[in-house]
Amino acid sequence: MKPTIDYIQRRFDEYNTRFFGGQLPSLPVRLSHAKGFLGKITFTRRRKGLFAGYRNEDFVLRINVRIDLPEQVVEDTILHEMIHYYIAVNQWNDTSTHGRLFRQEMARINKEGNRHITVTHKLSESEQEQTVLTKGRVVAVVRFTDGRTGIKVVPKQVRHILDWNRRARKTFDIVSIDWYYTDNGYFAKYPSSVALRIFLTDDLLPANDSRSPLFLAHRLSLSDNSVRLTVTPGYNLRW
User: DSSP string spanning 151-200?
Assistant: First the structure.
């Protein structure tokens, strides 16, 4: 699965109550496509005074959605980062990144919740392949006057997007063309080209439906000479 911000926040609230006594303050959640981690807590260390120590502030929980992982792994990743958050928000100093305090909390939660949190998660061969195959695509959702819907993946260069849009509107009887930029693997089966070939579909859910492959997609707005991208809030963009 590739978790949404809403999913992560619900799991955070659930685990906060169950394993941390509701003591963890809420924090911003961001989705990431970075290759180097499955989850990460980031924060700023600020000096409390001229001769005082530092205080951890401005926490952000980042969860990777670059690859599909089993839901249990996603949940354990969230819990892993919540342990880091628990230690950092309480301003405790551990013996190392995954030191004595971290391992004590990890062992406690694994026992209490029958979880499988680990210090690191090594990607399987198939998961590593996904990190290579996952890429962003420009997707046009075409709605024809006869009620049919089609999908077209176009190379992401602006000149190709604008040219294909103009030619398609002149060639076909079209009600609308909605443009998106997404890395959802659902669209990997469609070839990317400038050819006027549109693949008909009858099972594409609306983009505002959380089950749709376009749910977290960025919107593209076209004018005569430019393409404007509107980034989905809380979602890291890889162009």
Answer: EEEE-SSHHHHHHHHHHHHHHS-EEEEEEEEE--GGGGGSPB-SSS--EE
Domains, the chain, ranges and CATH? 5-129 (3.30.2010.10), 135-230 (no CATH)
Strand partners, 31: 63, 235
* Residue 32 tokens, joined: 């990431």
**Dihedral over Cα of 75, 78, 82, 84: its sign:** positive
Residue 85 CB: number of other CB atoms within 10 A? 22
Q: Which residue has the tokens 């990431």?
A: 32
Q: Is the CA virtual torsion 188, 190, 196, 200 positive or negative?
A: negative
**Mutual orientation of helices 100-113 and 5-20 as an angle, nearest 10°?**
90
- On whether the CB atoms of residues 34 and 66 are closer than 8 A, the answer is yes
- CA angle (15, 45, 64) in 5-degree steps: 45
CB atoms within 10 A of CB 231: 11
pLDDT, tens digit, 9 for 90 and up, residues 192-230? 999 999 999 988 899 988 889 898 899 999 998 899 998
DSSP 65-78: -SS---HHHHHHHH
